[in-house]
Amino acid sequence: MKTIALIVPEYRTSQALGGGLAALADFVEHALEDPTTPPDERLAVRFVVPRMYHGAPEHWSVGRPTSWRRGPIATRRPGRREIWDVGTWFPEIEQNRYRPRRALTALVEDCDAAVVIAGTPALGCVMAGTAVPWALEVASLVEEERAARLSSTRGVRGALLRMATASTRRADRSALQLPDEIVTINDTLAERLRGLTDRPVRLLPPGVDTESFRPAPIRAADGPIVMVSRLNDTRKDIPTLLRAYDHARRHHGVQNRLVLAGRHRPGEAELRLIDELGLARDVDIVSSPTDDELAEILRGASCFALASREEGLGVVFLEAMASGLPIVTTATRGACFAVPSGVGDVLPFGQTVVADFAAAIGRMTADRDRADRMGASARHHALKEFDRKVAAARWRSLAWELLERETQR
Q1: Looking at the domain covering 3-207+387-408, what would its CATH class be?
Q2: Domain 225-385: assigned CATH number
Q3: Is 83 exposed, middle or buried (CB count within 10 Å of its CB: 0-12, 13-18, 19+)?
Q4: Average pLDDT for residues 85-100, to the nearest whole number?
Q5: CA 75 to CA 238: how far, in whole Å?
Q6: What is the 3-state secondary structure (H, E, C) of the chain?
Q7: Above 70 in pLDDT, residue 371?
Q8: Chain segment 250-297, per-residue pLDDT in tens
Q9: Which residues pair with residue 346 across a beta bridge?
């Protein structure tokens, strides 16, 4: 059986138990190893995990004397799945986390092909010099991913962040010249990438389980407005959502509760804002629900709302649409790609975003027939474009194309 290496940074470590990259990696693993596919089409998967956390034991670190003589190492996690954690030299310096290292190269070259699943392209630099064919999956560019932090961080910390971002930006551009193929998850980023590299760029979003994420027999028009995300991620902009929800209650007669669900908990600033707005009795926080619990939350919702500032795709949109929910969201790249007209309201950023978002929530809860039509269209769109089986077949096709390149080398 042929083996594909999946290179995924900080994949399901104690410092990063989940998130978008981990969810995509799990989806790709299932697509390649799916036991329902014919045996001759199945592939084995080896996870190779470049550690990003500077305190990881696999690193060679000045602050860890026990590492001085052995250098960076690779360690296999216990269990049936083959998962290797790989360290680097001087992890305290961000750029060193993107450098090739012998242990990683050896693990990858023992496979037949590879897929790097990265947030920004820079991680692809770890593959420099490897002999196997490989693809690089990216969700954003570093200057876009860090735009909010760059605009709000001042002083010495801001200067250091800008220096690190400039360096990583150069690594992004270098990495885009290395793979056999580049994969991304929304159409506007695909066009941007085609202007930065001569490598082929393929649009290949993931899929969701449309059987687990399914609509209720009747949409819960009086159910809560639900937001799902990593709750401690400032890019998700929970404060804008809270202010819009408060505005919608005061000016548009919205009485539905608001549910914030996802990994971790909101930060202290967001919790204080809930109290300041007098919403403590109207907002529920569900930390780290299981997939089954999340599916149940979405089935009981009236609509899905997300005021994020940056989304490469937003698997949560796919799950919400599969659950038959109309969408209210800001116009991130991911939202503009995933949420077509007729499925929800995609609102431009600007000074009136809070009022605009509040008005959209008001329309979605007041006009039940419109929301029902949008929810039905959302379900149809999810089945057609983002069903797990459809997307899995596309990813298997990519893997076999890489393997064909391997035989030609």
Answers
A1: alpha beta
A2: 3.40.50.2000
A3: buried
A4: 93
A5: 38
A6: CCEEEEECCCCCECCECCCHHHHHHHHHHHHHHCCCCCHHHCCEEEEEEECCCCCCCCCECCCCHHHCCCCCCEEECCCCCEEEEECCECCCCHHHHHCCCHHHHHHHHCCCEEEEECCCHHHHHHHCCCCCCEEEEECCCHHHHCHHHHHHCCHHHHHHHHHHHHHHHHHHHHHCCCCCEEEECCHHHHHHHHCCCCCCEEECCCCECCCCCCCCCCCCCCCCEEEECCCCCHHHCHHHHHHHHHHHHHHCCCCCCEEEEECCCCCHHHHHHHHHCCCCCCEEEEECCCHHHHHHHHHCCCEEEECCCCCCCCHHHHHHHHCCCCEEEECCHHHHHHCCCCCEEEECCCCCHHHHHHHHHHHHHHCHHHHHHHHHHHHHHHHHHCEHHHHHHHHHHHHHHHHHHHHHC
A7: yes
A8: 999 999 999 999 988 999 999 999 999 999 999 999 999 999 999 999
A9: 329
- pLDDT of 200 higher than 90: yes
309 Rama class: left (phi>0) / alpha (psi -120 to 50) / beta: alpha
Predicted TM-score of the model (pTM): 0.84
The whole-number average pLDDT for the span 201-227 is 96
d(CA 326, CA 219): 10
Q: How far apart are CA 38 and CA 48, in angstroms?
A: 26
d(CA 165, CA 173) in angstroms, rounded, equals 12
Alpha carbon distance 21, 118 (integer Å) = 7
Q: Where are the alpha helices (DSSP H) in 260-325?
A: 268-276, 291-299, 315-322
CA Rg value for the chain? 22
Output the pLDDT for position 17: 66
pLDDT digits (tens, 9 = 90+) for 168-198: 999 999 999 999 999 998 899 999 999 999 9
What pLDDT score does 39 carry? 87
Residue 215 has pLDDT above 90, yes or no: yes
Each residue of 395-404: pLDDT tens digit?
Answer: 999 999 999 9
Domain ranges of the chain: 3-207+387-408, 225-385
Asked if the domains 3-207+387-408 and 225-385 are classified in one and the same CATH topology, the answer is yes
CB 51 within 8 A of CB 11: no
Which one has a higher pLDDT value, 406 or 240?
Answer: 240
Q: CB–CB of 262/231 below 8 Å? A: yes
